[in-house]
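We both want to read discrete structure tokens more fluently, so let's practise on a single case. Would you write everything just below, so we can both look at the same thing?
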Amino acid sequence: MAVSPTNLSQRTEELINFDKRIFFAFLVITFILLRYLTNILIIEAIPGSNELGQDGTFTFFHIFNTLNYLWTPFALLWKFTLTAFLLWIGTFLFGFKVKYGEIWKFVLVAEMVFILPDLIRLLYFAAIPPDNYWEIRNFHPFSIFSFLSTDNVPSRFHYPLQAINLFEVSYWFLLAIGIHTLTGKNYKTCLGLVLSSYLVGLLLWLAYYAMVYKG
């Protein structure tokens, strides 16, 4: 049985009725844990990793990863803040009255979809050990990049092609559910709002990245 827009809105509100601070902590811990376990696989994929670890060759690698773990909560906060701002601007342009803080909460919940690619990467290489570090680094499931030969793609386009993937597209639809829940407006209209605000911002960022990339 199809879910009516009203029921979709009600069910969504019920699902996100929890402490957002605890949920944020859950996201941070989950991302750090998945990346830590993946980094272990990276080290084990390097030939002679045991000997290199003993002589301190991996010192810089460990320092870089530690800083990356520490930066994770701030990176997520920045992403949520910017994404919510773009959507808030979109609601303003569409004539909807929505509080910025309410949009931020939905952005927080929608981020769950990005746990999946990290989890898939970890499980894939746990089952099929990688031959080298680059095999893990270039593994971006269900992205445009994954369907292309990396040798034929200029480096400046690697990140943009990795960023456009199935999970990112799913994210747009989840954000639209959030806007629909907050405004009660037609879902297609809310999806159009997301595409004309968040997606435009994302595409501008990816285009800028490709233009300024030095390699």
Observations:
- The first helix runs from residue 5 to 15.
- The chain is about 75% helix and 0% strand.
- Residues 9 and 184 are 7 Å apart (CA to CA).
